[in-house]
Amino acid sequence: MSVDELVQHPDRSSPSLLVERQSGAAPLLVERGGEATEAIRPERAAPGPTRVGVDVGGSKAEAVAIDPSGAIIARARRATERGSDGVLATVRAAIEDLGSTDVASVGIGIPGQIVGGTVRNAVNLGVAELDLAGELERSLGVPVAVQNDVNAAALGAHALLARDKSARPSGDLFAYLNLGTGIAAGVVLEGRLWRGWGGTAGEVGHVSIDPAGPECPCGQRGCIETFAGGASVARRWGRGGELPVRDVFDAADAGDPHALVLRADLARGVAAAVHVLVLTMDPVAVVIGGGVARLGDRLLDVVRSELHERSARSAFLTSLRLADRIELLPPDSAAGALGAALTPTR
Ligand SMILES: [Zn+2]
């Protein structure tokens, strides 16, 4: 199940998929393979080579080009084709849609295990193993970096936040919490990803919060992901439907007892993830993104109220101001593609 199947994408009904527009941008509609792609190419870009980033999701791929100042100067989106050949074709086409010349580097954010430039076990994309960096470097002739999609979004979210809130000291530690089919966080320390010893930093979705809880595919019981992961919520809801997590919230609003339990579990799981991140890393902010975050304030409200409830019993937790540290990544911010573009090449 893709993230977009969990929560309705606001653009779903529109053939024009671009949301963000830069000032002075001239929109350009490109139609290829029956898929509408809109790209922006503003007149005022800082001189110098551009860097390109592509965020490959289960249903769509988003590409951006950034100028040497880090500003997004072109943006395009198209449907993701499955399989290794499909992913390569999608990435190449999305880059072409940007119409960028003088490209210095390409970064890719993609789900799955990343080893060097190779992606493994990207189940949602139908990719078992693909030397993405090698294949793209051969055809594009520029250095290519490959990054896990959550880490790429963390880098991008950090860059967006640093731009919006210049008052924040640049040395601060920052966490991005991705709520999609699963749950994981990316941690950015002084502008760079902090991966930990073996790349496990931020895997908060597999912190167990209930030793007697449901079995998790990772082999533990009661992982945060089993309560708050979008796929788990959809499975426990069990009524099918196109948009299970939103359906759960709607039904909970209407007083459905099962939905109330699922919504409370989701809030408990997300709050636990924030709690763990703050107590282990003390980030200045925990920015929440991913498909489930498209619920917006409906999600923030239940998570904040759960955090307030926890804090009410503890002067220590109250002093940490957990609820004040969370904020939502603006929808359609292109954080994943931006972070991919910012990923250093080898
Ligand atoms: Zn687990």
Task: Explain briefly what this protein structure is.
The chain has about 350 residues and is α/β, with parallel strands linked by helices. About 35% of the residues lie in helices and about 25% in strands.
Main features:
single chain; 346 residues; Nucleotidyltransferase, domain 5; 5-stranded mixed β-sheet; 37% helix; 24% strand; disordered N terminus; binds zinc ion
Question: What's the story with the biggest beta sheet?
Answer: 5 strands, mixed
What is the helix tally?
Answer: 12
**N- to C-terminal separation?**
33 Å
CATH topology assignment of the largest domain: Nucleotidyltransferase, domain 5
Task: State the share of residues found in helices, binned by percent.
Answer: 25-40%
Mean pLDDT, rounded to whole units?
A: 86
Structural class: alpha/beta
Indicate the overall shape: globular
- Uncertain runs are 1-38
Extended strand count = 15
Strand order of the largest sheet: 5-4-3-6-10
Strand percentage lies at 15-25%
CATH superfamily grouping of the largest domain? ATPase, nucleotide binding domain
Cofactors, ions, other ligands: zinc ion
Radius of gyration, in Å, reads 20 Å
CATH classification, class level of the largest domain: Alpha Beta
What is the N-to-C succession of helices and strands?
Answer: HEEEEEHEEEEHEHEEEHHHHEHHHEH
CATH architecture of the largest domain: 2-Layer Sandwich
